[in-house]
Amino acid sequence: xxxxxxxxxxxTKWATGGPDRPARDLAEGLGVRTAVLVEGLSDLxxxxxxxxxxxxxxxxxxxxxxxxxxxxxVARYAGLLGPPGLGLRLTGLCDEGERGFYERGxxxxxxxxxxxxVCAADLEDELIRALGxxxxxxxLSAEGDLRAWQTFQRQPAQHGRPRHQQARRFLxxxxxxxxxxxxxxxxxxxxxxxxxxxxRLLASL
Length: 205
Prior knowledge:
The chain is of the alpha/beta class.
């Protein structure tokens, strides 16, 4: 049976020059109504983790969280998934520095700009601030990454940097780490400490 991952894969192939028919057929078969445009897989992991914590089945609600491989692809994906293409409702989560790409891409796709939720720096920064660095270090320890974290902190480039900035940089130093911790940090949040952009995004779906 087809699932939302199959739809994401079909859209990615379409966005890179493949046929549109598989994505169109899957969208209809799965009842996809909304596409959440996110920059990468760590954002996907975080959104899906928060949905699971709140008892939401996004796929059952016709929601696809679509990682695009970077904000510069938003115009392409918005055109395929929004009014010019599949006609889905578009929403999104992005970093402050990438807001312009989203605004231009959604404007071209004739989609409402108010449905984009913007993180102050990026989602990892929002999550680290919400948990506090002590909370993040507890998770790093539980995952067996405490020694690597302490070694990273001793690097000359990290001397004098605020600890939350060190933690944010650390999450991006190894392939797959941001994706894994995107889920773990969300799962560790107290119910009232969800970063506002992520909270508002899920509430809108």
